[in-house]
């Protein structure tokens, strides 16, 4: 498959191509590069120019560079541009310009990756779909996703994130979405924004990139929803669709029936009744699914097919995926259920995850202990500003905690939660994830359900791995996210 020829890439970037090459993909990492990819030598933690020779040896079709690296011959297949980041953005802009795809851009404090994946699943059922990989949602992730978009794409789903003020609008301008979706606004990155209103204003700026006549799909139940709606209208949105549980919303969730592995939701799209399913437990998944159906309507997708395909979506590792960890190769009842939420955390997503754990079904009489338990390993929630210690301590009083048997904590902020928990619920505290992971074996027993959640930098993936190593992991038929 040809994604970019040398001539197309040179015209798109204003660069100079050496050789007559054709690229089938675009990569920024020489370690994961596929043969035929265009390697983009970005300068981040390390200068990508240092890895051009390695990329070419691994089969790269060419490399985008701002200079010919040392040890690379002048006649090597290259795309020489003035600035590599600018070249990647130009390549992404050209990809967006040449496609007739309808584009959805997704942002939000919680749930943007799972909502993006729901949309990918729904769109793929009705055309050729393209979407961001993992959480490629920053200054290089968005243009990279666009640059990888085939010209014959029918639907594209672009995730847009932020860490500081002023980041979302330029990325939205690159994506130029037909639909802009904001999942929710919650305390996250408070250090950078100072207030929930500041976060809302930044999230709302996604509407500034809307194509003429585009649609904004917004959470309508928040205290800051008026900020979102006013910004969308000021940006010229042709239509604003709100979703939520309040009667004022165009897409309104009426009821969510949550089982151990599934959520069945009843809703209305104005006067039209909706019944849909998500293969993950949690009211937040029902709301995100409703946002997806609102976006699907704005895209002109067939609603019945969209509902059917939404029912086939399941979360990915680190964002609520559920696994059965079999402790015995023969006795299938001797197992632990793992809910992996280790990718990220803020107060809103932590509360949602605790509700999922509280509703999980344990199994009694199969382990050393008579009753199965709900056990949480909770790590620091980062970037919450000066109120972070109090936000961690407040989790101890969350209603879902009443159904959690033991809470183990990791990190200096999570220590405040540890101290606030009642003695009967207070588990171990560790300064690091590695320290916590080393003693996981003695914490757990057959019949338990264990959830692991914290900000990525806390490193709780090590705890997830330690739980997995207790046995042979078997994915559940249905699962849970962030």
UniProtKB/TrEMBL annotation:
<comment type="pathway">
    <text>Cell wall biogenesis; peptidoglycan biosynthesis.</text>
</comment>
<dbReference type="InterPro" id="IPR000713">
    <property type="entry name" value="Mur_ligase_N"/>
</dbReference>
<dbReference type="InterPro" id="IPR005863">
    <property type="entry name" value="UDP-N-AcMur_synth"/>
</dbReference>
<dbReference type="InterPro" id="IPR051046">
    <property type="entry name" value="MurCDEF_CellWall_CoF430Synth"/>
</dbReference>
<keyword id="KW-0963">Cytoplasm</keyword>
<dbReference type="GO" id="GO:0008360">
    <property type="term" value="P:regulation of cell shape"/>
</dbReference>
<dbReference type="GO" id="GO:0005524">
    <property type="term" value="F:ATP binding"/>
</dbReference>
<feature type="domain" description="Mur ligase C-terminal">
    <location>
        <begin position="326"/>
        <end position="455"/>
    </location>
</feature>
<protein>
    <recommendedName>
        <fullName>UDP-N-acetylmuramoyl-tripeptide--D-alanyl-D-alanine ligase</fullName>
        <ecNumber>6.3.2.10</ecNumber>
    </recommendedName>
</protein>
<keyword id="KW-0547">Nucleotide-binding</keyword>
<keyword id="KW-0132">Cell division</keyword>
<dbReference type="Pfam" id="PF08245">
    <property type="entry name" value="Mur_ligase_M"/>
</dbReference>
<feature type="domain" description="Mur ligase N-terminal catalytic">
    <location>
        <begin position="24"/>
        <end position="82"/>
    </location>
</feature>
<keyword id="KW-0067">ATP-binding</keyword>
<keyword id="KW-0131">Cell cycle</keyword>
<dbReference type="InterPro" id="IPR013221">
    <property type="entry name" value="Mur_ligase_cen"/>
</dbReference>
<keyword id="KW-0436">Ligase</keyword>
<dbReference type="InterPro" id="IPR036615">
    <property type="entry name" value="Mur_ligase_C_dom_sf"/>
</dbReference>
<dbReference type="GO" id="GO:0008766">
    <property type="term" value="F:UDP-N-acetylmuramoylalanyl-D-glutamyl-2,6-diaminopimelate-D-alanyl-D-alanine ligase activity"/>
</dbReference>
<keyword id="KW-0573">Peptidoglycan synthesis</keyword>
<dbReference type="InterPro" id="IPR036565">
    <property type="entry name" value="Mur-like_cat_sf"/>
</dbReference>
<dbReference type="GO" id="GO:0005737">
    <property type="term" value="C:cytoplasm"/>
</dbReference>
<keyword id="KW-0133">Cell shape</keyword>
<dbReference type="GO" id="GO:0009252">
    <property type="term" value="P:peptidoglycan biosynthetic process"/>
</dbReference>
<dbReference type="GO" id="GO:0047480">
    <property type="term" value="F:UDP-N-acetylmuramoyl-tripeptide-D-alanyl-D-alanine ligase activity"/>
</dbReference>
<keyword id="KW-0961">Cell wall biogenesis/degradation</keyword>
<comment type="function">
    <text>Involved in cell wall formation. Catalyzes the final step in the synthesis of UDP-N-acetylmuramoyl-pentapeptide, the precursor of murein.</text>
</comment>
<feature type="binding site">
    <location>
        <begin position="108"/>
        <end position="114"/>
    </location>
    <ligand>
        <name>ATP</name>
    </ligand>
</feature>
<dbReference type="GO" id="GO:0071555">
    <property type="term" value="P:cell wall organization"/>
</dbReference>
<comment type="similarity">
    <text>Belongs to the MurCDEF family. MurF subfamily.</text>
</comment>
<dbReference type="InterPro" id="IPR035911">
    <property type="entry name" value="MurE/MurF_N"/>
</dbReference>
<dbReference type="Pfam" id="PF01225">
    <property type="entry name" value="Mur_ligase"/>
</dbReference>
<dbReference type="GO" id="GO:0051301">
    <property type="term" value="P:cell division"/>
</dbReference>
<dbReference type="InterPro" id="IPR004101">
    <property type="entry name" value="Mur_ligase_C"/>
</dbReference>
<feature type="domain" description="Mur ligase central">
    <location>
        <begin position="106"/>
        <end position="296"/>
    </location>
</feature>
<dbReference type="Pfam" id="PF02875">
    <property type="entry name" value="Mur_ligase_C"/>
</dbReference>
């Amino acid at each position: 498959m040809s994604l970019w020829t040398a001539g197309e890439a040179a015209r798109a970037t204003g660069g100079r191509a050496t050789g007559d090459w054709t690229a089938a993909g675009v990569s920024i990492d020489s370690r994961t590069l596929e043969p035929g990819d265009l390697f983009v030598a970005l300068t981040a933690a390390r200068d990508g120019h240092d890895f051009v020779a390695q990329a070419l040896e691994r089969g790269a079709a060419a490399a985008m560079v701002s200079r010919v690296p040392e040890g690379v011959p002048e006649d090597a297949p290259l795309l020489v541009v003035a600035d590599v980041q600018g070249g990647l953005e130009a390549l992404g802009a050209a990809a967006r310009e040449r496609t007739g795809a309808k584009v959805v851009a997704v942002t939000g404090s919680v749930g943007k990756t799972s909502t993006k994946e729901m949309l990918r699943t729904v769109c793929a059922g009705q055309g050729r779909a393209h979407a961001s990989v993992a959480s490629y949602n920053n200054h290089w992730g968005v243009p990279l996703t666009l640059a990888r978009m085939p010209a014959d794409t029918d639907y594209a789903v672009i995730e847009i994130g932020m860490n500081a003020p002023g980041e979302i609008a330029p990325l939205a301008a690159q994506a130029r979405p037909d639909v802009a979706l904001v999942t929710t606004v919650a305390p996250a990155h408070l250090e950078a924004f100072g207030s929930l209103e500041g976060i809302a204003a930044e999230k709302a700026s996604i509407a500034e990139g809307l194509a003429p006549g585009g649609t904004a799909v917004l959470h309508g139940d928040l205290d800051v929803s008026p900020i979102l709606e006013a910004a969308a209208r000021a940006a010229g949105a042709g239509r604003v669709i709100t979703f939520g549980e309040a009667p004022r919303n165009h897409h309104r969730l009426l009821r969510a029936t949550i089982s151990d592995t599934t959520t069945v939701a009843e809703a209305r799209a104005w006067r039209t009744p909706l019944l849909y399913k998500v293969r993950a437990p949690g009211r937040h998944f029902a709301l995100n699914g409703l946002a997806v159906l609102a976006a699907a309507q704005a895209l002109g997708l067939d609603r019945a097919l969209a509902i059917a395909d939404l029912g086939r979506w399941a979360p990915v590792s680190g964002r609520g995926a559920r696994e059965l960890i079999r402790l015995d190769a023969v006795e299938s009842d001797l197992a632990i259920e793992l809910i992996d939420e280790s990718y990220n955390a803020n107060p809103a997503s932590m509360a949602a995850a605790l509700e999922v754990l509280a509703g999980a079904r344990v199994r009694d009489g199969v382990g050393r202990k008579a009753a199965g338990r709900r056990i949480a390993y909770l790590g620091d929630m980062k970037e919450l500003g000066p109120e972070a210690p109090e936000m961690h301590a407040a989790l101890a009083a969350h209603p879902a905690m009443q159904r959690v048997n033991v809470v183990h904590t990791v990190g200096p902020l999570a220590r405040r939660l540890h101290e606030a928990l009642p003695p009967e619920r207070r588990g171990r505290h560790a300064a690091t994830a590695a320290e916590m992971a080393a003693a996981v074996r003695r914490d757990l027993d057959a019949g338990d359900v264990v959830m692991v959640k914290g900000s990525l930098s806390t490193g709780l993936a090590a705890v997830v791995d330690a739980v997995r190593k207790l046995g042979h992991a078997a994915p559940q038929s249905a699962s849970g996210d962030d």
